[in-house]
Amino acid sequence: TAPEESPNTDGIDISASNHLQIHDSFIGTGDDCVAINGFSSYINISRVLCGPGHGISIGSLGKGGAYETVEEVHVEDCTFKGTMNGARIKTWKGGRGYARKISFERIRMINAGNPIIIDQTYVNRMAAASTASGDVEISDVSYKGVIGSSTDARAVYFNCGDGAGCRNIVVEDVEMTSAVAGKQLFAVCNNAHGTSSADRSPRVPCLLP
Hints:
It is found in: Secreted, Cell wall. Belongs to the glycosyl hydrolase 28 family. Keywords: Cell wall, Cell wall biogenesis/degradation, Glycosidase, Hydrolase, Secreted. This is Polygalacturonase. One of its GO terms (molecular function) is polygalacturonase activity. The protein is mostly beta strands and 209 residues long. 0% of the residues lie in helices and 56% in strands. Strands 2, 4, 6, 7, 9, 11, 13, 14 and 16 form a nine-stranded parallel beta sheet that branches. The protein has a seven-stranded parallel beta sheet with strand order 1-3-5-8-10-12-15, with no helix packed on it. The termini are far apart.
């Protein structure tokens, strides 16, 4: 645990590691509850209560044009309570490598900000954006059974780069409401390709084929 306003207080920070299990834990911090960094794979996270904090994050990856990879990360049966972000993937513009085969299943959001977010053009407030071309490739990411409440009207945000973008994004059985009475939730997609359930809230019609 750490105070909500304390910077750089990741709960668990993973790098260059594989075959890890994180389960049955409470993590409340001023930064990521769990951060999964480059060259990590086969990470299973289950039954974690995260909050406060910045959610469970893949990345950031590719800072300064670096080549980094993350794959086979599976988050399930977790709760985000009062977090700045929820299920998050963040990569730097100009980075290389990939983030793939990532799933978030049976996730509960309680007054969470940015519940579902991919940012392929991430910029840390302490560092300038890269001017290099290219992106860390993001593919095969699924969000299934995400429920609860969002403090942001933009509950789903897929901000993918101008190149290949994000591929095979699946949004299924996501059912969230606004933490602010009377507000409707919506989704925003930039160059994100995939499929979504048509009759859920928020609807995600902006995914490209």
